[in-house]
């Protein structure tokens, strides 16, 4: 199943031509025009508006809160501080304690005595209008006793200043995977020691800068406590998980809570969270007995919604002289921010299985120390752990190619899993079901005109052109389709990874499909309709996709980790197949034929060898009427299925990027970007293109533009879009994308996830291109984002440029709590190394 | 993003506006296109009690020919300035710079006078105004006065306009036949320039007969690079001359250090951008 071959979804039993069709997204008209149910568009009778009072300090003791003036302000109904709530307020939970001894501070939705990051909530105001709430919030006087803040990750691991003094340390958890211990490979320290004698040892430190998800729709929540159930509308990716968390921490029975994620304007992982604002809105609505709404400002969103990335990656790669990798050792320090968020330390752990990427490494070790600081909490952001891993290894493979003196694609080919070797169990213990790295690479090279661009690069180098050309390679893979529940259980994750679907055949011939995946811009309505249309042989237009409401879709685990299609879609397929199973005996009965003589094709049960038959929708109507059903058959065709994936899902692809670097100014200008992704069978090419293009821009943005920056006191300097540079269409080029197809073998549609692929792949492709352009200047790294200034300094200073001199510091710092390479604990520069 | 409460008045004549200003001057802000003021209000970085809107005063809009100068009304939107044929002919540098301001939406709302009165050293229009020798006409209770652009910009966000005055129009001496180029260096298109250089040159018989060079975001005010101009006039319009003159762009500059670059990087950048702006302006003059 690894070569490019026909789709497996067309079993002869099913017809249809929807799968593979460029359907325009049926949800777009209402989403784009805004004539839809965004949370902030919801207005309820008697609804109050909330405003939050937030700390300007990163670390401080609250010595007093004066609310009298705010309470007297026009329109104000209540001003509440931490002291006004009891335990029914609940807490923000961490669902993935990555080690049994993980240190995690309690995360109350409102601070009572101590502030841990700038932007933390100190008080909440409820008023009759949003403006009155905001005005009154400005009148709340909070007295702070400022405490020393620890902001910098490298400072935090020293434990000299503590983010949470009560914990006694900033180190939250140390998570280790070792291939020798796991029995999946050899001893990495031995591999490195061996490579120091006659082989190649590369040591690098890469900085994954902090990013801000910057979804289009700011977070918003409406809570209606009237009625038998408390109804929560939230701009969230995870209505089901939010409902569970509310029930688990507030004492309100789960059966009394209904959570609705109406149309949600993007998330990128940033709305995969149980937020303090949701908890407070829930508590205030209950307390006042009135509906309340809170919609954050963009400034609040940037400073208090969770951030992503923020790791220091120390990497040691051992290889033979001809560039065959013999071992990889990874030591990560990952910034949790002030609290361990919902997924929290699990994000870097998701990367643990991906540093070996598409390669056959004999030995591998991964160490991750998660660290608390007085900064905004961090959690999932598009790719969540895998972009960081992919960046590290794809940068290293380019470095290895430079060391060996061969083309970057050549060194990859010497190490990658060949297509004949699938299924392949990796050194990290995962079984890759399918893939064809040769085919994707060949196609990408052809589209890119690789050899021509290499020739142009040589010509520019030879002529001393002030504008140099660099070519960057990224042959990524990732693990998505989260996730097999047993695997999650073995990693101590607090939930399973299944997904649920329900199909209701309406008497009028229409079809309702309920999915537990909760779309926030992905296009589920369209893609799932296409699948069901083909599977049941009904018109695309007759299929309605329902989701995002725990009353409608009672069971579900929501949308993240590129799981909706490969897990949720499979549940839909299975539910559809059950509909047919239920319909078959009724059809046979109505046709007065034997069940065994029926065949189902294009929405119709036919009697083999005759022209007799009956449509599925007619069977549905007959079931509804129930006038003439076989004995023992229930009067509907409705079916449901819960699907727990048997494995992760492994899309891959070859991305090639050409960047021109103006050596006078340091400006980078993208010239060409080719992405040839293998995402298995494609349901809707138009949606896939949207995911790939958007994903690419987000990954390119990490390489070139975006960085959340704090000052020494813990104030977010990039607190608006003036300083946090999001690219727009004006800043990007048109990408050339194509696909090779190795169908996934673990779901019946043969599909692989695509939501995060572009973001995971593109960052190293771009930085590799920038570094490639500058190799003649002795440059081997430019810190992200590769700003013109950093590029210019790298050219002037050579090596890693001014900003990554840390790469030459003692490599394995004992203060991180990690063990270090056995023969390099002193940080001395080894022979054969490449500092 | 809700501003603190304020009262609002939208006079239809300059006299009414001046009267409103004299009544509320110390607690009032004038709003022109609102592209700088509104974010400030919405982020509650400023909370004036009164906002006086000049948007309904028709006499403050438009571009007219006044002999040896163009006169641009303070409330003329960037989109009009950028597209105006008189500006293109007589003040090409201003047209080029205006076309780079932010994005289409901002250029339709933002105004020429509003941008100058805001006096952001990273704004695109101050440096071209200084380079072209603009004169700013300011109305107050005692009548109008005219201030040279060199004297107008006093410091960061600070101008010669006093609390009871309103900028009404800007006179720009005509520069017919001058080539022009605005070289703007940004990381993303909608960003304020990290550094920008506006250059306009008059070339006669291969020799530079006149030069006007302004620098954006190289100090607390927009700058005029007189040393560059002096080094060019009388020289042959060659790359060598431009390169040598561009080195002088750093004279008198005190660039800021921020996330987009330290001062030393900006000092380097300004020499590269000045050379490129001059060469492009020379090419434009020949076209």
TrEMBL record, chain A:
What keyword terms does UniProt attach to this protein? Molybdenum, Oxidoreductase
From the broadest rank down, the organism's phylogenetic lineage runs: Bacteria, Bacillati, Actinomycetota, Actinomycetes, Propionibacteriales
Instruction: Report the protein name in the record.
Output: Xanthine dehydrogenase family protein molybdopterin-binding subunit
**Keyword Oxidoreductase applies:** yes
Residue stretches spanning the membrane: none
Gene3D superfamilies on file: Aldehyde oxidase/xanthine dehydrogenase, a/b hammerhead, Aldehyde oxidase/xanthine dehydrogenase, molybdopterin binding domain
Q: Which InterPro entries match?
A: Ald_Oxase/Xan_DH_a/b (IPR000674), Ald_Oxase/Xan_DH_a/b_sf (IPR036856), Ald_Oxase/xanthine_DH-like (IPR016208), AldOxase/xan_DH_MoCoBD1 (IPR008274), AldOxase/xan_DH_MoCoBD2 (IPR046867), AldOxase/xan_DH_Mopterin-bd_sf (IPR037165)
Q: Residue ranges of the Aldehyde oxidase/xanthine dehydrogenase a/b hammerhead domain?
A: 33-148
Automatic annotation (TrEMBL), chain B:
InterPro entries annotated for this entry?
A: CO_DH_flav_C, CO_DH_flav_C_dom_sf, Diverse_Substr_Oxidored, FAD-bd_PCMH, FAD-bd_PCMH-like_sf, FAD-bd_PCMH_sub1, FAD-bd_PCMH_sub2, Mopterin_DH_FAD-bd
Q: Which residues form the FAD-binding PCMH-type domain?
A: 1-177
Q: Does the keyword section mention Hydrolase?
A: no
Top-rank lineage group of the source organism? Bacteria
Is S-adenosyl-L-methionine among this UniProt entry's keywords? no
Q: Which residues lie in coiled coils?
A: none
Alphabetical list of SMART domains matching this protein: CO_deh_flav_C
Q: Name one Pfam family in it.
A: CO_deh_flav_C
* Keywords recorded for this protein, A-Z: FAD, Flavoprotein, Oxidoreductase
Q: Which PANTHER family match?
A: XANTHINE DEHYDROGENASE SUBUNIT C-RELATED (PTHR42659:SF2)
Q: What is the recorded name of this protein?
A: Xanthine dehydrogenase family protein subunit M
Q: Which organism is it from?
A: Nocardioides eburneus
